[in-house]
Amino acid sequence: MEIVYGTQNIAKYDSMKICLRDLEKELGFELIHLMQLGDRFPEVEENGTDPLDNARIKARVYYDIINKPVFSIDSGLYFDELPDELQPGLEVRRVQGKRLNDDEMIAYYTQLAKNHGGRITGKYKNAICLIMDKRRVYEYEGDDISSEKFYVIDKPHHEKVEGFPIDSLSVHIKTNKYYYDLNLDKEDAWDTDKGFINFFKNILS
Prior knowledge:
The chain is of the alpha+beta class. It has one domain (2-204): Maf protein (Alpha-Beta Complex). The chain is built from four helices and ten strands. The strands form two sheets. Strands 1, 2, 3, 6, 7, 8, 9 and 10 form an eight-stranded mixed β-sheet that branches. It has a two-stranded antiparallel ribbon with strand order 4-5. Strand 1 (2-5), helix 1 (10-27) and strand 2 form a beta-alpha-beta unit. Helix 1 (10-27) crosses helix 4. The longest helix is centred in the N-terminal third of the chain and has 18 residues, at 10-27.
């Protein structure tokens, strides 16, 4: 059985592929990328009111096109130090109506951190919608698929992964290290993998 990750962001697909690779073998499904099915997919207007609403909108649009099991994930980013009018929320990439590329995002969030003493404290709130068929639709949002709190600082790391620009500014609070510099075998990094694995395992098994 193929399950499609309904995103046009290759970096997000690659990350989820790594997350679910053992479960793929265990349960006998294959995670594929939306663009493996062609290049006819529209940019979905994400006009929901929260991450789950947007995940639902994207999954439904893609399911109607491909008629295969498909899921979408959406995130909101929230900072402790920012007033409501400056919260990225669902508009992580969009500022004053403009969609930012990766370099522009790094510059924008670097400046936000500078404006608040060099760092701000953020958290991603995630939600997922999986459509197996017209009758079976599964939705979830919870702390186990959302990030722990982390710092965004005003000095970008030299490493950068396309599609995840804010990761270059993200610092683990407990160790005060960039996430890119953590030894994942010895240090406690944020890990949403278990939450996503449990979501799929509970449904597919």
